[in-house]
Amino acid sequence: MKGLLKYLSPFAPDQSGAASVLYDMGGLTIICDAGGCTGNICGFDEPRWFLRKSAIFSAGLRDMDAILGRDDRMVEKIQDAAKKLDAGFAALIGTPVPAVIATDFRALGRMTEKRCHLPVLTVECTGTRLYDEGEADTWLALFTKFAKDRPDGVYEKGAVGVIGMTPLNLSRVDADPVIRDELKARGYGPVYCYGMRDGLEVLQKAGEAVLNLVVSPSGLLAARYLEKRFGTPYRMAYPFCSEELKEKLHAVDGKRILVLHQQAAANAIREEIRKTSEAEITVGTWFLLDEEFKKPQDVRLTTEEHLGRLVKEERYDVIIGDRMQKRALPDYEGAWLHVPQFAVSGELEEAAF
Amino acid sequence: MNRTVDCMTAGELAALGKDHIPGEFQSSRHLIYSSPATLAFNSPGAQGFGVKRAGLAVPGSVMLLVAPGCCGRNTAALNALGYRERFFYLLMDDTDIVTGRHLNKISQAVREVVESLREKPTVVMICITCVDALLGTDMERVCRKASKAAGVPVRPCYMYALTREGRMPPMVHVRKTIYELLEKRPRKRTAVNLLGEFSPFMKDMELYEILRGLGVKEIREISRCRDFEEYLSMAEANFNLVLNPECRPAAEDIRKRLGIPSIELTRLYQIDKIHRQYELLGGALGTDIDDQSWYQRAREKVDAFGRKYPNTRFAVGEWLNGNAFELSLALLRYGHQVPEIYGTVTPEQFVYLRKIADLSPDTRIYSNLSPTMLNYDCGEYPADVTIGQDAAFYHPGCPNVPWNQEEQPFGYAGLGHLFESLLAARDGEKITGGSV
User: Fold this and answer.
1) Are residues A221 and A247 both part of a single domain?
2) Residues of A in contact with B102 (CB under 8 A)
């Protein structure tokens, strides 16, 4: 039955993705909810919450706010918080409540901007979509609003922008040193790790990058926008496979392999296996599957039954992915290599490797 | 740089009075900061019992969450507590949340869930969220239909965060829901129910012995029911003792439906008030309750702490098994200092606030959910020991007693164990949950 989960738990939703992108940006992030969505984000989907502070707040909507559409009250609350906290901007993130009452986010954004004298961006999440779609919308909104124009031909020497650096994509909390070291070793200059330690100030320089690396399909929308606006080329890459994981991947013994992960990570895993194996490898993902970076056999999964059917029909002998998904495959008898996917199970890679 | 923190002294708040609580202290008037300290406000299930976990208090029950995926996301955290096989999800899409067409799928989903289980569940709880609150869904009707289709009882659980400050907040509602399957049975004079919590009270809680001393043979709590039949036998009780005010509507519903009256007791940490409460309970039951031995034992523990660590400075939070203001008042009355309280100021708290103001007018009270707590700096007001998980967050490195254990403290036993834990914490032991 479409929408029924008998074995899996829901994956990270769009508002979690949006909040994750904004975490290190230095703004006020307001989740337009009654509280539960913020609780989910802060208590589950944002592992950085317990490590360092970020100004993420719930709008604390109540039934009469929603029924009467009392947006002005929410704006008053934001105005009050903006007066008492340091913030470069405010971001309003949607949830099911504004989705049901059809909140006009553009108008709400304009109204907030005017009253709070702060730049405001809005992300119309609904809670029904997955985290990567929320991330994609947020990256695009950030670059559209804040990336500064630059004179033609002026670049920061060797600078690389990295889009998609969130724990939800990487299953790691602070992975920026990994990619900074990797790119430095390859002779690149400064690395703009948008959203992971690098905040709004760095994001404003996006036009100065000579290359954008996209570590998840959630960054592609923004990368294509930056290519169009600044002519910056982009590539999909995922240089986060640990040596331990690489060793395990090289030892995988199978003829038909299914890799379950977000597309950039799954592609990287496939390439790693390819170094030592000629197995047929399919990427399966519950999340965005971009045409430009997919192989013909790759699949976007829609339901538990879909996964079950795929595994049964294709007779994979090895599955690589988060073990939480194993529950949905009670009849599967092949091998399973556990690679945590935070957006699926809430497990970080540090816990596994 | 702006570093404002919204706080007032007890003296200032008491002077304003319960009808003039400043906006900074009213959670409906400001954005809600869901810091690790106050996570339980927005996500009670993350640290204890939220609606989802609470709804499964009925033995043998399973839950179908009917909501957008975001509402069930953190439920995976409950897997480690043994709930993996008991949660199912019917995810709504964008069309569902506008048209309400998901309601037509619930019967089939319940049937599929029941068929997928080796054992038939005793009840399927349908948990619905803000979307259905706004759509005005008649869940009673939906549940009746699903029950007929699946051949098992189906009951609604309302996880309506939108109604948090309403007359029937979600955690109040779910306390009512879990007793709704009880059906009228002949009452037994020797049976009593303890209502209010989803996990058992401390084994050495004196109330058990007091009740047994009064001739009560069966003391039932939903969390101690081993199976559905034992749960159903809660309908035999002669009376209910309500040990959490959030269970008041449930007790009233039980009184109306099953004719079982109730008596409400409050969790207190002021020893003389605990004693007085037992006197009143005795009066209500037409007997005298001799609580001296328990009183003395608790008093000894309070005094032992005071002798070793007189004039201790406490920072008291609200995410603990107790009322932050009543507990602070108790500590002040035992001769200690309470420089800071992190709490939610409501008119009901003024009964304690006024007394705190008399004893310690400079006690600073922070609006725990205020966005300005982002600016809080513990260096300004050091403490010797903190109580509550939130207080621990604000004073990292300070000895802490979280006092948020699942085994529920109550009465003299709760007070005694609290002071044992405080003593251990000040002695340098690390305390997790509650008791040492």
Assistant:
1) no
2) 3
Nearest CA in chain A to B162: A62
Judgement on whether residues A247 and A225 belong to the same structural domain of the protein: no
**A292 part of a folded domain:** yes
Complex prediction ipTM: 0.95
Query: Which residues of chain A have a pLDDT value below 70?
Result: 351-353
State the amino acid at position B2 in one-letter form.
N
Q: Report whether A199 contacts A26 (CB < 8 A).
A: yes
Both B303 and B416 in one domain: the answer is yes
Residue B200: how many other CB atoms lie within 10 Å: 15
When divided into structural domains, chain A yields a total of 3
Instruction: Supply φ then ψ for residue A54, to 5 degrees.
Output: -150, 145
pTM given for the model: 0.94
Q: Which domain does A111 fall in, by range?
A: 14-142
Q: Of the residues A179, A212, A236, which one is the last residue of a structural domain?
A: A236
- Residue A103, token pair as written in the block: 């909140």
Structure tokens at A331: 């009849």
Task: Clarify whether residues A93 and A36 are in a common domain.
Answer: yes
Of B69, B87, B225, B204, residue with least CA distance to B157: B87
Cα separation, A281 vs A258, in Å, equals: 6
Instruction: Please report the DSSP string for B334-403 in residue order.
Output: TT-EEEEEEE---GGGHHHHHHHHHH-TT-EEEETT-GGGGG--GGGS--SEEESHHHHHHSTTS-EE--
| Touching B: A residues 175-234, CB under 8 Å | none
Q: Are residues A183 and A252 in the same domain?
A: no
Pair A344, A250 in one domain: yes
Looking at the structure, do residues B160 and B196 belong to the same domain, yes or no?
A: no
Q: Report the alpha-carbon angle A28-A31-A35, nearest 5.
A: 125
The per-type count for chain A, helices as H runs and strands as E runs, is 16, 14
Q: What is the number of structural domains in chain B?
A: 3
Burial environment of residue B240 by CB neighbours within 10 A (0 to 12, 13 to 18, 19 or more) = buried
In whole numbers, what is the pLDDT of chain B averaged over residues? 94
Question: Is there a single domain that holds both residue B353 and residue B295?
Answer: yes
Give the single-character DSSP code of B166. Answer: S
- Residue B403's closest CA among B315, B334, B339? B315
pLDDT of A46-102, one tens digit each?
A: 999 999 999 999 999 998 998 888 999 999 999 999 999 989 999 999 999 999 999
Q: How many residues does chain A have?
A: 353
CB B40 within 8 A of CB B171: no
| Tens digits of residue pLDDT in B319-362 | 999 999 999 999 999 999 999 999 999 999 999 999 999 999 99
Residues of B in contact with A4 (CB under 8 A): 88-91, 105, 109, 112-113
Q: What angle do CA B334, B362, B394 make, to 5 degrees?
A: 80
Closest Cβ opposite residue B46 in set A44, A57, A126? A44
Chain B contacts in chain A segment 316-335 (CB below 8 A): 324, 327
Q: Is the residue at B5 inside a domain?
A: no
Counting every residue, how long is chain B?
436
